[in-house]
Structure formats: structure tokens, C-alpha cells
User: Fold this.
Amino acid sequence: MYARDRALRVLLVEDNPGDAHLIKRLLTKSSATKHALDAVDRLNAGIERCDQGSVDVVLLDLSLPDSLGIATVATMRAAVPRVPIIVLTGLNDLEVAVHAVREGAQDYLVKGTVTVDILERAMYYAIERKNLEDQLMQYSEHLEELVAQKTAELKRAERLAAIGQMAAMVGHDLRSPLQAILNTIHLEKKQVDKLEGHFAPSEAPEAQQLRDGLDKIKEQVAYMSSMVTDLLDFARTPSPKITRTSTEQLVNEALRRVVAPNNVVIEKKLDPSLPDLDVDPFLMRRALINIMSNALQAMPDGGTVCVMTKNNGQSASINVADTGMGIPRENIRKLFEPLFTTKSRGVGLGLAIVKSVIEAHGGTITVESDVGRGSKFCIALPLRS
Ligand SMILES: Nc1ncnc2c1ncn2[C@@H]1O[C@H](COP(=O)(O)OP(=O)(O)O)[C@@H](O)[C@H]1O
Ligand SMILES: [Mg+2]
Assistant:
């Protein structure tokens, strides 16, 4: 805000030396304050001066050697949008005045009719008006941004809902037949085992082939089954059934469910001061399993998975760090999007499920990663006070 008694830095853009002299005299007569007046005689020179900063207000003549008429206002406004402009011209024409204001001038004064009071007031008003205009502009730009952001959020929510519905349908329809296939394989393998003693020695390789075939089918069906579980988990909006749960138990159970190959070392650094958590143990275990499976899949040549818990007073953190391939920067923000996967046999729902589970508990999940060195997924959950 400009206090009325603050000296203004005025730039006069006027090519007529007589007129320039008059304005200078007028301003030196100014009542209480001494304004700093700078003068140039060309539009381009005026723009340059404004560009260098330290101009509070411009007094602009419309007929200059390098620009004529209303275009002078338009050019100056476009070049230095932040500086308030007062048109100061010999032409007393209301139509031109209105036009000048439409082009972005804050005021229009006619030479010869201007007194020091009028000029000074016009300058302060112009600055105030320009400030308000800028604020309004910023506000409306911000509103546009906000609308765009909300529209994007809405679209995303609609998309998620559609994926969710599809996931629920597919998951539901596939679940029973997959289970039936798994059961049948189990029985068929038992059948082969039972026949063991009845094979002629020459038939042994064929029996083995049969077993291997059944194992392969089982492996594939188990994979399909885990996809279906992901789909169903994703389709359900998690509504946690809160129970007091030991973090250690949670971590151990999750670790038991993921099968780590021999070349992977599992480390645990559990904070003994961490109290039991108020969480849904089933959902939280699911979230940890998803993070841990990703960690294992990120280390095809082995490495270390470290699970750390910590009591931060207000919150508990559960971090899972791996020494795997890491995540390229451009993928980081897509990780938690449903269906984002970089794996040939990935579904891309694991982390989307993790995020919705953690958020349903009032927590947050973040990730830090270094390509080639590993990743760390950090869960923070509020602790009861
Ligand atoms: N620990 C990790 N290390 C490297 N990349 C990871 C890790 N965890 C997740 N990612 C990346 O995030 C993607 C999405 O993970 P997720 O949602 O679990 O789906 P999926 O495992 O089916 O691909 C993965 O495809 C992978 O690119
Ligand atoms: Mg996964």
C-alpha cells in the first residue's frame, strides 16, 4: 500500500520539451512530498526504464516519435504489465480516454487542465487501482487453477470408481473357478502320488512330467489368483476394523507371507518403545505384504530388505527399505496410481491398495528412492495421544 506522503518515482514519457518542462514544474510544486521525476522522450526508452524497475507510475503522452495514439498505451501495457499508466495528452476526447482505459491505462488527464493536486491524486489513485486490479487478476488466476485442479480430481475419482467396479466384477467372477482349478490340481497331484507304486520303471519319467506339468499350472493359477485378490482388494473401499495390534506381530506376519529367496537378507529394526497400534491388522498386513513383495521383486539378484519401526511421539513409522533397482524420478509420482506397473506380469494395484489402506487409517505413505541403490517406503500412522 502507498502512503500518501511517500515520494513517488514518476516516469514521464513526453517528447515535447515544453510540455515536459511544465509537468516537471508542476511536480516540484507538489505540496508535501518531493517526487522523483525521470523523463524520456520515446516509448521504447520508457519501456526500458520501467523494465529496470523502480518506477511507481508512468505519465504517458500518446503521440511520441516511435508510437502514435492508443497503440502507445497498448504497447506499454503489454511490455510492462505491472506498472500503472496515466495518459497525459493534449487531446481532450472522451472516446479516446475511454479507449485508453480499456487498453489498460489507469487514468486519462488532459494537459493544460491539470493542477498539481489533480496530478498527484491521479498518481496515487492509479497506483491503488493497479494494485487492486493485479490482486483481482491473481485471484481469478488462482480460481482457474483451483477449478482445473478440482476437475482433475473429479475425473480421477470417476476413473477410479469405474476401475473399481470393473475390478469387483472380474474379481468376483474369477475367484470361484480359480479356486476350483487349484483344488483340482491338488487332488490330481495326490492321485499321481498314489499311483507311484503302480508305474513301471519305464513310466517314471512320464509320471515326473505329469507332476511338473501340474506344478506349472498351479504356479500360473496361483499368479492369476493373486491378481484377483488385488482386484478385489482394490475394489473394496477399506473400512478399517480397528483393534489394538502389536507392530512386531504385524511385521512378522507380513514377512511370513512373503517368500524371500535365499539371496535376500531380511533385517528388522523394531523400536521397543513403540506402543501397540490402533489399526486393522488384516488391512495393515495386506499393505505391508504389498510393499515387501515389491521390495523382493526389485532385487532379482538378491539384496537386503530392512523393516524399521520407530516411535516418533505423535506418530509411528514403519519403513521398508530395499537395496533393489530403485525407481526413476519420473515414475515416483505415478507409483500409487492404480494400474501403474513396470512389470511384464504386474497389475499395478499393489501400491494403490497400500495408499488407500494407509489413508483410511489417517496415515501417510511416502517413498524415497535412488536408481540402482534401492528404495524406501515410509508409512506414518498417527499414535493415540
Ligand atoms: N521397492 C520397489 N523398487 C522398485 N520399484 C518399485 C518398488 N515398489 C514399487 N515399484 C514400482 O512401482 C510399480 C507399481 O507397484 P505396484 O502398485 O505394487 O504394482 P505391481 O507390483 O503390480 O507392478 C511397480 O511396477 C514398480 O515399477
Ligand atoms: Mg506390487
Notes: The radius of gyration is 37 Å. The longest strand covers residues 303-311. Residues 116-195 form the longest helix (80 residues). The CA atoms of residues 58 and 85 lie 5 Å apart.
